[in-house]
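Board notes, transcribed. Complex of a protein with alpha-D-glucopyranose.
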Amino acid sequence: MNILSKPEYEEKLAQTRDARMGWWRKAKFGMFIHIGLYSQLGRNEWARAFENIPKDEYEKLADNFMLKEGCCREWAKLAKSAGMKYMVLTTRHHEGFSLWDSKVNPFNSVNYGCKRDIVKEFVEACREYGLGIGFYSSLMDWHHEDGYKCAYDNEARRRFLDYIEALNVELLSNYGKIDILWYDVANPMQSWEGWDSLERNQRLRELQPDIIINDRSRLDEDFGTPEGHVTAGNRDWEACMTFNDISWGYLDDKLTIPYAYTAQRIARMLFTCSQGNGNLLLNIGPGPDGSIPQDAIEPLTKIGEWLKLHEEVFYTQKSYLGGRWAWPNGGSGTCSACSSVDLRHVYLWNWILPHDGKIALGGYKTSPKSIKIVSTGEELPFRFDEENQRILISGMVNGDKILGITMLDVEFENPPEYHPFSKYPQLNGGRM
Ligand code: GLC
């Protein structure tokens, strides 16, 4: 195979990116699944490293890796009902245990524990529920004997990189069409050259021409991955967040309850994704037998019900990077605004229901045509105060019985002219 130089490769990727990423950009919301031997410990997926657990002691966990039958379908079913459109599974985390029938890594779930190919079950479940399929694949490996030596010993590095490639070749050859390759933690080598990422990724893409790859093999590839915060980037991005903010792997329920996300908090994250053209990959860490943690079920189900009522808006919405209409409080201290592909619409996500039913939106120089509650279609009365460049909405009610976040569709004849400070430049230090 003819290996392209980095600029040539990047140019080629750029040419096919819109076609390859189209589904993902619309998908907006995915489920991340962290499951592995660490799930039995119920502390953190880094437990082996944090606690210096000796190799032989850690390996014993493999015999007890007992996922219940049908757990992958349960994850997929919940993802689907949460309004998520794809899933990413930790096929092998840093601990080095493969969840598939690997020929190159005998330390796997077919040789130990439940003796099943979990990756295969996962792929089947995703297909059954119509979800995109993503494989998380750690680059760092605490189990392989060259996993550290590769940093300073060239022969070890060659062996280790062959191993990493062979693992990914298995994953991308044996399970049909795969949508996402989600690398993680490119340690100990500190450069893409050190990881041979340019060569390996080109070869892997030959196996899955439509695949999208994240930015964690020390190459930019297709999308950025802010972790633990939802922050817009200036390229395709996907924020990964974990349900309890503390651990990706399973945490004992008693510990996680105080930290679990509410559906409202998930909605806030989805808002930021909407506004900044990004995706949310929300993680759950199933328990040792693959059960979904209790405290994830209710918020995910709720957000799914809510998204169903806002489907039209949420999955088609595309605001400009930097949020052209994104005056954080919509002028009233209660809402945030996103524009849509169709710039005649501004969508307001209303976070606090005003007691008097009144909302004022500052900075609009033209009057809307109508203002409607998205979930019910109910029209709200409003008045346009041209002199002060304000839209004054009245009769605002809680139109959202699920989350109490009433979304408004503010429709204009033409894309509105908007500038929050144009009328009152003194608010912006005199700048326009
Ligand atoms: C971090 C952690 C890892 C987790 C990942 C998810 O890089 O090392 O445990 O899987 O983030 O993004």
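The first helix runs from residue 6 to 27. The chain is about 30% helix and 15% strand.
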